[in-house]
Every structure is written in structure tokens, then in C-alpha cells.
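Hi support team,

I'm filing this because I wasn't sure whether my run with S-adenosylmethionine finished correctly. The job status page said complete, but I'd like someone to confirm that the output block is well-formed before I use it downstream. Pasting the exact inputs I used:
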Amino acid sequence: MTKKKLNALKVPIKFAQTAKLFLKENNLLQTGFEQFAKNGFFYLPLVSNSISLNIPFEHKITSTSFQITDKQKAQSLKNLLSKKFSPQNLSLLHSSYDLIGDIAIVSIPPKLKSKSKTIANSLIKSNSRVKVVVQKSKFEGQFRIRGIKVLAGENRTTAIHKENGCVFYLDLNKVYFSSRLSFERNRICQLVKNDENVMVIFAGVGPFAIEIAKHLKSLKQRCQVLAIEWNPDACNYLLKNIKANKVEEFVQVHSVDANIFLKDKKYFKWADRVIMPLLHQSLDFIPVALNVCKKNSIIHAYAVIDGHDESGLVKTSNEIVKIGLKNKRNLKVISSRYCGAYSAKTNQASFDILVLD
Ligand SMILES: C[S@@+](CC[C@H](N)C(=O)[O-])C[C@H]1O[C@@H](n2cnc3c(N)ncnc32)[C@H](O)[C@@H]1O
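And here is everything the job wrote out:
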């Protein structure tokens, strides 16, 4: 069998890259099949039968035949393990994983724990881009670090990750990084206008701050970005990444607790845009972030929500408006969307909030 009929996302060719990033971010892109262009449209294979997410660009869900890639035929993880694993164990195996630089982060089902090393070694054989395989673990502590264990390949947790035309140096055991927000970062970059003052609170190794700066620089425009981060290791990587992406004149790093920084009168009413990518706490930070917001500025806040239906977005949007009223500021949520899975049952969501006064 060289072809298979699958559900597909059909988009105008100009949205091909955007759609690819969006599907990857939401773990909806089926790998191992050739994506193709036909009559002005681009077709991407989908992993699931239905998409209940809001897709923020022109598209149609259709059904079409996709060519199976040669590499996929010879090297799929399941194919490589088919002689070693029983059909029951094979069906438990997750074939998708996050890739940060050349490090694959895999989730091993509890029933296959004793076979972790075999799975990890086969994964390295199945994808030439993978040089290290680590076991997925929870983000923990004030710096949101994973505590990752290497299962196979080179014994390291450092990586060089490329995203949206930028390069990021990082160590998965010293800093937070997730590749799942790449579409979201790209979306925000397109919103920033010439000469804006942008504050990225919870900056990590700099993906939001650096991608915005590099995007504006590529348009021959300007912006001033302040990146706030309290993990010293993340700040060191942030400084290295600013240099590596040649945006020194746009981005300034403040290695400090955001709670203290946002109370510094020097920055009151400084920002045209505030980005707060701290999933579990960004709503708690809205009151203090309002100090730095100009009239008509925008806050991009993130949250974790059970499920992925419209009611979750509406409920959190209402909470945001109430937080504004409590702090004597008039807030309006101008857009909200789900932006990737957080766990099996929860999803990440983003809220674009207009600070009316
Ligand atoms: C979820 S990560 C986001 C990192 C980055 N923006 C990204 O998208 O990769 C949150 C970051 O906020 C930092 N952080 C958490 N609380 C903070 C605080 N009160 N002040 C400054 N940084 C903080 C953590 O150290 C961590 O690097």
C-alpha cells in the first residue's frame, strides 16, 4: 500500500506554513505522509477524524489520498518494533513526540516502562534528526523545569532549537522550553506594530521576546522589548540567544521577580503590549501587570482549561473582565483560542485582552 485515504486540512497555498505550524502545535498533523499542493490549495494529513478547535485562518476539512513516505514505510517506530513487541504492546505505543533541537521527548505508557530503552533506541533508528531520547516528565518548581532522564543516545540535555527563523540554545534540565507554542509565538509576532514597547514577563530563554524583535527587524521596523525572567540559568541562555539572533539593540533582559519589577514606578504605563506565558498563574498577575499597561494596550495572557469547548474560553474571558473591574480598569477580551494540548484532558488557551482605560 503506497497511498492512504485520510482526513485533510485544505488551505490556500499562502496559509501552508501557518497551517503546518498550527497543526503541529495542536498535535494534529499526521506524520509519515506526503503533504501536497494542487490547484492553488495545500493539503495536510490530520491525525484525528474531527477538529473541534477554532482554526484561525481560511480552511476546509476534506478527505483525500496521501502518499506514504518511503522513510515512513521502512522506518516507522511501530514497524521497527513489530518483531520485538506483541500486537497488544504495539497498540499502546505513542507514535508522536515533541522534538526540541535533536532531543525527542517521549511519553512512555506505564505498561511499557520496562521497555523504555528499547523504544528509545528504536526511535533514534527511526528518525535521523533524533540524537537524544528523554522521558517526558512534569514541569515543576518556580522555574518550571522538567528533571529529565536520558533514555538513549548522547548523554546530554542541551539542545539548539530552531523556530520561526530564530535559534535557541537551552538546557532542558535548567530552563523551561516547550515547542508547542510555536504557532502562538508566530501569531503574536504578526500583531506587533512598528515602535511598540513590548514587555515579556516570564521570558524563559526568550522565544517570544526574540521572535518579535527579529520579525520587526526583518521588516526594517523597530520595537523595544523588555524580557523579565528570574531563573538565572534561563537569563544566561536568554542573553546568549539575543546575541545569536542579532537583536541586541531591541531586547533588554531584567533578571528579577516579576512581582517586584511590575511595581517599579519607572515602568508604569510604559507598555503597548504585555505577554504573560505562565500558564497556571498569568491571570493572577493581571492586577500587577495593569500597572505597566498604557490605555489601549494589549495583554496576551495564557491559561490551562479542562476540555476544549467554547464555554471554557467564555468562562475565563468573563473572569478576566471581572479582574479588571476589581482593579478599576476596563478590560475587553478581543480574541481567545486554544493553542495546544497541555495534558490528556486539558488544553492551553490564549486570551488577547484590550486595556480600554
Ligand atoms: C512557562 S515558562 C515560559 C517561558 C517562555 N516564555 C517560553 O514560552 O518558553 C515560565 C517562565 O517564567 C519564569 N517565572 C515564573 N515566575 C516568575 C516570576 N515571578 N518572575 C520572573 N520570572 C518568573 C520561570 O522561571 C519560567 O522560565
